[in-house]
Amino acid sequence: xxxxxxxxxxxxxxxxxxxxxxxxxxxxxxxxxxxxxxxxxxxxxxxxxxxxxxxxxxxxxxxxxxxxxxxxxxxxxxxxxxxxxxxxxxxxxxxxxxxxxxxxxxxxxxxx
Length: 112
Fold this sequence. Notes:
Layout: H1 2-15, H2 21-54, H3 57-67, H4 72-87, H5 92-109
Helix pairs in contact: 2-5, 3-5, 4-5
């Protein structure tokens, strides 16, 4: 889908006669810059997840959530709220990589 969109944008710029080497160079530069930013987020989230899991952080979070005497639905609502807050600042890929090792043990322990 992304390739089709890029091809459509390229065709539109050619039709409207805005396609030149300077515009193409800037578009490529901005694309590479954005891709590099997203990759750094992915690298950082992956490193954090590995270190957090190896240090036993996932088990600690699981024990904290299970120690609370609240309904499992309240725990899930809290998780959704953290996704909402993280979604304001991070890329979805980074959020998934960051929260999966934290929340999967909790969800499994709650029998969802």
